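User: Please fill in residues for this 258-position structure.
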């Protein structure tokens, strides 16, 4: 497989209105498949969330990762994505999430570690432009001296690569530790204040609004790789809505690894 470069493609931006968690999971699958089939150009999608959730990785154990009772108490939905990686705690105004959908030729011949670093380079550039000393932390984190900023996940299917990243703009650490078991275990011998240091939000590091940070990210991508306005096509959204209902909202899929 011959490797291609970012600038071999005409990238499109999708930044739609807030959508529910299960629909976001479905859109990721649909757009990855559309890019694989060459029906859609490579795309950067910036997510807007309509409700809080926990997103677990494709191969994670539901009960090992999530305290179901705490999630119910807070009204937090649990969904499973198609990529691997760890659990993400999402609150609409406190999270910046984006996906990249590209032909697999963009990362041809790369190991997963190399492809993570390659796919995150533009956003690290954006963060550095905001005055943050950010770097890629293997295997799938973006970090700064103040702590972890973001976590990435990736999958390759049908000749396309899906790479998505969740960044902490702000965070309710207490709630996160109530809902995520893994966070609780990692921090069991530490105070909640230590958790806040472990994941350090962009709000405290930049003093900027969430929307201003997103604007900087989009501008950096456009400067480096080119980026034209785009949208979810009606047929894509229709397929995603059906998939959200039949798959990503189902207990069978969410609990596929109990």
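Assistant: Residues filled in for all 258 positions:
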């Amino acid at each position: 497989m011959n490797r291609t470069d970012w600038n071999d493609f005409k990238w499109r931006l999708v930044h739609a209105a807030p959508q529910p968690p299960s629909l976001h999971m479905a859109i990721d699958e649909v757009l990855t498949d559309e890019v694989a089939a060459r029906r859609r150009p490579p795309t950067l999608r910036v997510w807007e969330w309509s409700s809080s959730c926990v997103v677990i990785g494709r191969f994670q154990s539901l009960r090992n990762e999530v305290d179901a009772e705490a999630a119910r108490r807070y009204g937090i939905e649990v969904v499973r994505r198609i990529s691997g990686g760890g659990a993400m705690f999402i609150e609409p105004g406190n999270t910046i999430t984006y996906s990249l959908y590209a032909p697999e030729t963009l990362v041809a011949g790369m190991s997963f570690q190399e492809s993570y670093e390659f796919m995150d380079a533009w956003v690290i550039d954006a963060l550095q432009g905001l005055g943050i000393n950010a770097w890629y932390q293997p295997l799938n984190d973006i970090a700064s001296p103040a702590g972890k900023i973001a976590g990435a996940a990736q999958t390759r299917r049908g000749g396309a690569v899906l790479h998505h990243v969740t960044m902490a703009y702000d965070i309710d650490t207490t709630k996160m530790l109530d809902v995520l078991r893994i966070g609780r275990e990692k921090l069991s011998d530490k105070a909640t204040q230590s958790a806040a240091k472990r994941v350090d939000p962009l709000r405290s590091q930049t003093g900027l609004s969430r929307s201003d940070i997103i604007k900087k990210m989009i501008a950096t991508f456009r400067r480096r790789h080119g980026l034209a306005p785009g949208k979810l096509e009606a047929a894509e959204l229709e397929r995603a809505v059906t998939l959200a209902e039949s798959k990503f909202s189902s207990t069978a899929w969410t609990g596929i690894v109990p």
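For context: Confidence is low (pLDDT under 50) at residues 187-192.
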